[in-house]
Design a protein that fits this description.
alpha/beta; about 140 residues; single chain; Rossmann fold; binds magnesium ion; binds adenosine-5'-diphosphate
Length: about 140
């Protein structure tokens, strides 16, 4: 089972940490990324995508809500921060994504807590200081 408890001191370090862990995400699963704004959630996910051999540009789905990638495995990246209406997520097909074998990465998962599957695992990001972030499985 994936276990992380690391402090990174730059965005590049967060990317290379995610890169090195990418193999552990190959089998899919649903991961919730929790933590403050600018704590490195999207940065980590970009690193994961590059570690999974996705070579294009990975943007934050803050406004698009859901981004899909064909990397070494199929990756679905969601950001719930700006959409708290659970019905809207259901309309977007979130339950079908949960029933798929895709790797599902969700920022701000607590916003859609009532519909999250039990099998979700959480990775927590904390701001320690300007460039220091703690990244840990919880
Ligand atoms: N150690 C670090 N890891 C990740 N990001 C960092 C780090 N230090 C500073 N940063 C900065 O913090 C911000 C993180 O942004 P982002 O990954 O979008 O956060 P989130 O998705 O959690 O809101 C970026 O501006 C990045 O340059
Ligand atoms: Mg983000």
């Amino acid at each position: 089972m994936l276990s992380i408890n690391k402090i990174t001191e730059s965005p590049e370090e967060t990317i290379s940490l995610a890169n090195s862990l990418a193999g552990s995400f190959l089998d899919g699963g649903i991961y919730g990324f929790v933590g403050d704004l600018a704590s490195g959630k999207t940065t980590f996910i970009k690193g994961l995508l590059s570690g999974l051999d996705f070579s294009g540009v990975a943007n934050s789905p803050t406004f698009t809500l859901i981004n899909e990638y064909n990397a070494k495995c199929r990756v679905v990246h969601m950001d719930c921060y700006r959409e708290s209406d659970i019905n809207r997520w259901i309309q977007l097909g979130i339950l079908e994504y949960f029933n798929s074998n895709d790797l599902i990465l969700i920022e701000w998962p607590d916003i859609i807590k009532p519909i999250l599957p039990d099998r979700i695992k959480y990775i927590k990001f904390s701001n320690i200081d300007k460039n220091k972030r703690r990244i840990e499985t919880i």
